[in-house]
Design brief:
heterodimer; A: about 325 residues; mainly alpha; ABC transporter involved in vitamin B12 uptake, BtuC; two-stranded antiparallel sheet; globular; B: about 500 residues; Rossmann fold; six-stranded mixed β-sheet; about 25% strand
């Protein structure tokens, strides 16, 4: 290295990915405990059921990751899933009957649900960008509206899906569970291309310093709009997967995805201030979060403590990010004696 | 060289208001291809606002901008960049969590046909850009891990990498060392004189402008005053144009200090980790003691110690003859010590609150009864301070963040004046402030001393120390190198003790 201020490649990698690496270390520990607790994990069924249960949260977390990266937070994740889930169970069977083909009905329903999810996200985005409102307020408000629409569509848990739908979305190809393929799609065909595009770079720049991004000629408004729309789109994806697992619609059960998605994003090392982290970390976060819940059930921890453990994990994850700042404060403001 | 052409960029009758303050009043501006054009004026005269309008960060209320005689609308920085107008801002516009290379090419990343960024190529290009400019920075490092001077270089590289037609530099040299400034000037000369691009340059350092400016425009009070070729006026004539008044003697008259008067502050053998070693001196009533020496030799740490922001390892501090244990800023304020921090934006002010609230902040206790603040009294006291310091505001409710740098510094000083402390510590109070405001601050500090306060004044500018202080304590590597007074107060002596030039001493 010839440069005066040169750093080793390893050091630079650590500076960029410290929080993510901590997330993965934590994930490996949890994973080891989980395998230890669940004896039949390595059976095809064990692996499949593990992947199945974290898949919905994974797509919800993908949407949340984008919003958190620009320094916002999306509190309508669960509601957009509820809306999409309800819409899917309401329209799928009538569409199949109308078109006279099960496959046609499924494909049309998927397209409509994805469009509806994107529209819900777009409305969030329009309110944030042109209404100049805080994302947290906007998405809190719209979350009531979206859940309300879901409950109008499906007043009681239930609804029908076309017979072949679950087989298309879930199940296995050979030994590989389809849910694993959905994870690969999210990472390789959605996240990586976006991360490596100018749009992806703009997201990081806006999260890091919005004013700098603006003065660098980035279209901040357009980027934010697309980010919120993507969040809605991925919620619709999550809902379509959820529908295939449950086979019915239940808007009231989807609310938990909002906070769990935030938890997964934070556990994966994405900074709530924006500009740091990414979906690679969120995958670890989702796995940690889902497996810990499973572990607590295996260990027969009472329900009350399960919630308390969830909360403690979140505080732990958040404090990793601010360790640096705590030190800084000690140095400048010594305690009185 | 650029005479009698049509201007490459001209602005006509530009107006801009920020809240109640008129930042630009029907301002005209022209610059020509291939010239280095200096913008000069006090802080708040409107230079920065004009630059921001020209590069699309701020949209003017009125007026027209012409580029090569064609009327243009610049609504955003990307509009300006498309025309080749780019800017380096006073406050840096880098993204701290992105690498050097990512910052340089932000928004213009090299992409392949699938829209994917070629990070390797981007890094090579960034290396090339920095090498071309003659700077040596690892392009993979995150910007937040770079020293401030290097960040400023990255900022400059970012702008120049776009191969612009017009470069606007707003105090781009404030963090750079002398050799880096010289290198930047060489680059500017190449850009303007060889490549025939235009450079618009804002600086408060007259010597810098003298090195590179071809022509200059002076602003005062949001108005265009004069445009002239460099060399037409002498430096002192330019200062007259800027200030709009003759500055007879910049520094106020010093007063004799009786050698037998009691010291207010006695500092005995203070040590701090590896930053300070055995610092001992005292400050008497009515005395201004300057802290001199090269930047970073312990002066700011010493002020932090006096203000309780850093813990002393060894040594004794006496205030009015009694030993004081100052372990936090709160106790320091109780002991009658007040500090104006060097970083006014982060440490000195609540930028989003009004000037009134900021001024009143340190003295809330004094005006409150039964836990409630006497608002009438607060308004009266703060408005008196605003008047006394001539802070330019529309009213006392104006948000501090909208004030110019000089007026913000006055607000910081106003805040500590209200505390009525006995000991005032000033940490580089005139940094980034125009000549006129500096002059007012010197008067103010001298008045404080004349009222019997003890003052410790740290400045990076030697002429300021010489003009204002009764004594100068020169720091070198955390120790006192010498204490100068009387006939020893000259720049040569300061520099010699700061740099510890022994051989010269033998010759004298």
């Amino acid at each position: 290295m010839k440069n005066k201020g040169s750093q080793s490649t390893l050091k630079i990698f650590w500076a960029k990915n410290r929080e993510t690496m901590i997330g993965y270390t934590f994930m490996i520990i949890v994973f080891a405990l989980y395998i230890n607790a669940q004896i039949n994990f390595f059976s095809p069924y064990g692996i499949k059921s593990t992947f199945d249960q974290l898949l919905t949260l994974l797509y919800a977390g993908l949407g949340q990751t984008f919003v958190v990266l620009i320094g916002g937070v999306d509190l309508s994740i669960g509601s957009m899933i509820a809306l999409s889930n309800s819409l899917a169970v309401v329209i799928m069977v009538p569409l199949a009957d109308y078109l006279g083909s099960d496959l046609g009905g499924i494909i049309t329903a998927i397209v409509i649900v994805l469009l509806a999810g994107s529209l819900a996200g777009l409305i969030n985005g329009l309110l944030v960008v042109y209404g100049r409102l805080q994302p947290i307020i906007v998405t809190l408000a719209t979350s009531f509206i979206y859940t309300g629409i879901g409950m109008y569509l499906v007043p009681k848990p239930g609804g029908l899906i076309v017979k072949g739908y679950s087989q298309i979305m879930t199940g296995s190809i050979g030994v590989i569970p389809k849910s694993f393929l959905w994870l690969v799609i999210a990472l390789v065909f959605i996240w990586i291309p976006i991360r490596r595009s100018r749009f992806g770079q703009s997201i990081y720049a806006i999260g890091g310093n919005e004013y700098s991004a603006f003065t660098s000629g980035i279209n901040v408004q357009k980027t934010k709009l697309i980010v919120f729309m993507l969040s809605g789109l991925f919620c619709a994806m999550a809902a379509l997967l959820l529908t295939s697992f449950t086979g019915s619609g239940d808007p009231t059960k989807c609310e938990t995805f909002t906070l769990n998605a935030i938890a997964a994003v934070v556990l994966g090392g994405t900074s709530l201030a924006g500009g740091r982290g990414g979906f690679v970390g969120t995958i670890a976060g989702v796995i940690i979060f889902s497996l810990i819940l499973g572990l607590l059930v295996f260990w027969r921890v009472p329900t009350f403590f399960q919630e308390a453990v969830k909360g403690s994990i979140l505080i732990f994850a958040l404090s990793v990010g601010i360790l640096e700042k705590i030190k800084f404060h000690k140095r400048y403001y010594p305690t009185e004696d | 060289m650029a005479e009698k052409q049509t201007p490459i960029l001209s602005a006509k009758k530009i107006c801009k208001r920020f809240g109640g303050v008129q930042a630009l009043k029907e301002v005209d501006f022209e610059c020509y291809q291939g010239e280095v054009h200096a913008l000069i004026g006090e802080n708040g005269a409107g230079k920065s606002t004009l630059v921001k309008i020209l590069c699309g960060v701020v949209v003017p209320d009125q007026g027209d901008i012409f580029f090569r005689d064609q009327r243009i609308d610049i609504k955003s920085p990307s509009d300006a960049a498309k025309l080749g107008i780019v800017s380096v801002f006073q406050e840096l516009s880098l993204v701290p969590d992105l690498s050097v290379a990512e910052n340089i090419f932000l928004g213009y990343e090299p992409i392949n046909k699938f829209g994917q960024i070629n990070f390797k190529l981007m890094q090579q290009k960034a290396n090339y850009v920095l090498e071309e400019l003659g700077f040596d920075i690892d392009t993979r490092i995150l910007v937040k891990n770079l020293p401030f001077a290097d960040q400023q270089i990255v900022e400059i590289a970012k702008v120049l990498s776009k191969d612009p037609e017009i470069v606007l530099l707003d105090e781009a040299t404030s963090a750079l060392g002398a050799d880096e400034v010289e290198r930047l000037f060489n680059i500017i000369r190449v850009i303007s004189h060889e490549k025939k691009k235009t450079v618009v340059f804002i600086s408060h350092k007259m010597s810098e402008l003298g090195c590179i400016a071809d022509s200059a425009t002076v602003f005062r009070d949001a108005q265009h005053i004069s445009t002239f070729g460099w060399g037409k006026y002498s430096e002192s004539e330019i200062i007259d144009l800027i200030a709009g008044r003759k500055i007879e003697s910049v520094f106020p008259q010093k007063k004799e200090i009786h050698s037998n008067s009691d010291p207010v502050v006695e500092i005995c053998g203070i040590c701090l980790e590896n930053k300070l070693r055995d610092i001992s001196f005292n400050v008497k009533r009515g005395e201004i003691v300057g802290l001199g020496g090269l930047v970073g030799h312990g002066q700011t740490e010493f002020l932090d110690v006096l203000f309780g922001a850093k813990k002393i390892e060894q040594g004794i501090l006496k205030i009015k003859g009694k030993q004081a244990f100052i372990s936090s800023p709160r106790i320091a304020i109780k002991c009658g010590i007040a500090l104006t921090p060097a970083d006014r934006k982060n440490d000195g002010l609540l930028l989003t609150r009004s000037i009134k609230e900021n001024l009143a902040l340190m003295t809330l206790q004094r005006r409150s009864r039964f836990g409630l603040i006497d608002i009438k009294k607060e308004k009266k006291e703060t408005e008196n301070t605003i008047k006394m310091l001539t802070i330019k505001v529309s009213n006392s409710e104006q948000i501090v963040g909208t004030l110019s740098g000089g007026n913000q510094q006055k607000a910081v000083i106003g805040k500590i004046l209200l505390t009525d402390a006995d000991i005032f510590l000033f940490s580089d109070p005139t940094r980034g402030i125009d000549v006129g405001t500096k002059f007012e601050l010197y008067q103010l500090i001298r008045q404080l001393a004349d009222r019997g306060k003890a003052i410790v004044f740290y400045s990076t500018e030697n002429n300021e120390l010489l003009g204002l202080c009764n004594r100068i304590v020169v720091f070198r590597q955390g120790r006192i190198s010498s204490i100068l007074e009387g006939s020893d107060l000259n720049e040569y002596k300061i520099l010699r003790s700061a740099m510890d030039i022994q051989c010269e001493e033998v010759q004298n």
